[in-house]
Amino acid sequence: MTNISALAALGDPTRRAIFEHLADNPSAVGALAQCLPVSRPAVSQHLKVLKDAGLVTDHRDGTRHIYRLDPTGIAELRDYLDRFWNTALASFKARVEEGGGTLP
Amino acid sequence: MSASSQTSVQTSIVVEAPIDRAFTVFTEDIGSWWPPDHHILQAELAEMVFEPHPGGHIYDRGTDGSVCRWARVLAYEPPERVVFSWDISLAWQIESDPTKTSEVEVRFVAESPQRTRVTLEHRHIDHHGEGWEQMRDAVGSPEGWGVGLRRFATRLEGVPTAGG
């Protein structure tokens, strides 16, 4: 099961900035610290929280650790919204195909 | 899986209706199809209103006169495209901080004069940072949305439901 505290970790704006940066660019700690107004140790600490929450994962590339999003971390939220929109659009389809109703 | 797809949900549906009608029903007539159990109002729902211009809102009005503006209309380009914010927190409450909201883009493409493809993307869902546990508890039960989805599917296929 996905860690249910995963998205709570994104309540912090700096962590969210790191998360969004990693969504576009898998990065090492040093690269993140360069493009965000945060010290390298602070970036490391935030990455640890995100990693513990199951939102990011890392792999070793030579001497560096490259961080990227963990695709399972926000799977539950995606599932939830996916169910919602499929339900809503099915209802929309039923309505729009009624033909008559209150619309011309 | 691409990076952006991890923080968005995409879905599409084909409806047997002209593009103008599909767009109009989706926007002006949103109250006719929106899942009735998904409202924030305390009072009973009187109507849903979609203000058809950028800067407008989508709001629910209760029978007691209360109003809940849960979306800002970001783009309104009939009959092809509409974008609105999703100012609803994961606890199904109004989110007043726009940096913690996501957005929904809906595109309409005519596949024939009588058939329209509707493509929906709900993106930046990672902006919702708090309240995940409450939302999971609210909808994660077996009686949650999965039942509603099966009912819709059954109805669309014209198969009678056993035992109602």
Distance between the termini of chain B: 40 Å
Regions with little confidence, pLDDT below 50 for 5+ residues of chain B = 130-164
Shape of chain A: elongated
Task: Give the strand tally of chain B.
Answer: 7
Strands of the largest sheet of chain A, in order across it?
1-2
Average pLDDT over all residues of chain A: 80
- Gyration radius of chain A (Cα, Å) is 20 Å
Kindly report the greatest chain-chain contact and the residue count on each side.
A-B, 43 and 48 residues
Counting copies of identical and different chains, the oligomeric state is heterodimer
- Overall form of chain B: globular
List the helices and strands and how they pair.
The complex is a heterodimer of chains A (104) and B (164).
Chain A: H1 13-24, H2 29-35, H3 40-52, E1 56-61, E2 64-69, H4 75-96
Antiparallel strand pairs in A: 1-2
Helix pairs in contact in A: 1-3, 2-3
Chain B: H1 3-6, E1 8-15, H2 19-27, E2 45-50, E3 57-62, E4 67-77, E5 81-86, E6 102-112, E7 115-123, H3 132-139, H4 145-156
Antiparallel strand pairs in B: 1-7, 2-3, 3-4, 4-5, 5-6, 6-7
Structure description:
The complex is a heterodimer of chains A (104) and B (164). Chain A is mostly helical and 104 residues long. Chain A contains four helices and two strands, in the order H-H-H-E-E-H. In chain A, strands 1-2 form a two-stranded antiparallel ribbon. In chain A, strand 1 and strand 2 (64-69) form a beta hairpin. Chain A is elongated and about 65 Å long. With 164 residues, chain B is α+β, with helices and mostly antiparallel strands. Chain B has four helices and seven strands. A seven-stranded antiparallel β-sheet of chain B has the order 1-7-6-5-4-3-2. The longest helix of chain B is centred in the C-terminal third of the chain and has 12 residues, at 145-156. The termini of chain B are far apart. Classes of the chains: A mainly alpha (104), B alpha+beta (164). Chains A and B meet through helix 1 and helix 4 of A and helix 1, strand 1, helix 2, strand 7 and helix 3 of B.
